[in-house]
């Protein structure tokens, strides 16, 4: 019923969750957790006990809880909803923590401080992760101990032999584990921030490209429907309109730059303010713990016989106080969530009969059983994942052994390769010498072929013989044609002579 109504309950032990924003590192055995355990950025406000608290902002700078949600500038790592940090009491135990969320959450809203994801920034609003949000998966305000009350010397002496002695050896190991987990959490958070920046830039680029493509698509659709834009007549205010558009574009760009600069200034101012408040809170808490320890050591030194024994006793007392305060805070938040949920149910249902209340109780019991089943399923999944991790480690060890074997085999193959390369170089030298001898023989053969002429070449000899025979035949034919030509010339001369004689006789007869 408490799990269904109040949401995820933080574990009181500091070693269960990562030592990040919302979990105090145990530190030394003689010091109780203070504000110096805050690894992530927080934004505690100035103490104003007479004013109502703002959402998600504690009013005491000396508290240990960071603000898990900032509704103005959500960052990319703001993914885990939960109750916000409680108000800082001026006196320990005088005021109860108040979660930031709706005033009347129903049973179906167990997370009163759930925020929406980061909104898509406009072209003039740079998206920067707010420094006020804790990273994903980090425990929040319920696991932080409040400022411990100042025990008097008598109370310190009475509690010296109590619960502090049982926890003297544990904080050192827990501190190392918490420090390692916190370092891993910070590295993961830095990687996520870098990845978020790259994705934001890519989203902005794709958004602009999509806008351009949509404009182009609209023009193409208008052209397909025949809705062509009327062409502007030449000289009809074209240059003036172009100048106006350029001026408007320049004004919009300047406005965007101003808005981006103002946003960056606001983010930087908030970051500086948060860092200053954190530093002031850490200093005040350290001074308070030092004064408290000094007073306790001075009062117990005479009773226990030395300052070292008194310091050890005070350290055990402070460690026990830190654990008790953490448990008391968790129990207080659980009770407050339960009271708030019960009040909401009473306001919503009003005056109901006993039967209706019994039905509501049964309904809540069923929901609690469902949540218990879900928890069991998650536990089974965790066991499966652990088995899978062990199998993966085993396979990885096998791969490493195989890698070592392959590396040794590669070394042997490299030695063989060196031997083969040496033999290859020798054979290569022999091959070059053989090629040189072949070239010399080829040149000598060519020279001998040039000297021998037609000897040994049957085809050339046969062709030469055929050409000689053809030349003789052609010469004989030429002689025959010459004789025939001479005979024809003699015949022509005789005929010409006869023609001349006939012409002369004909002329003589005419005379």
From TrEMBL:
Residue stretches of biased makeup (Low complexity): 16-43, 152-169
Highest taxon of source: Eukaryota
Locations listed in the record: Cell projection, Cilium
Ranges that cross the membrane: none
Keywords: Cell projection, Coiled coil
Biased composition (Acidic residues): 61-75
Region described as Disordered: 1-195
Biased composition regions of type Basic and acidic residues, renumbered to the chain: 45-60, 174-191
Domain CCDC113/CCDC96 coiled-coil positions: 326-492
Gene Ontology CC: axoneme; ciliary basal body
Coiled coil (residue ranges): 361-388, 431-481
The keyword rRNA-binding belongs to this UniProt entry's keyword annotation: no
Pfam family, one: CCDC113_CCDC96_CC
Biological process per Gene Ontology, one example term: cilium assembly
PANTHER family on file: COILED-COIL DOMAIN-CONTAINING PROTEIN 113-RELATED, COILED-COIL DOMAIN-CONTAINING PROTEIN 96
Protein name: CCDC113/CCDC96 coiled-coil domain-containing protein
Organism listed in the record: Aquila chrysaetos chrysaetos
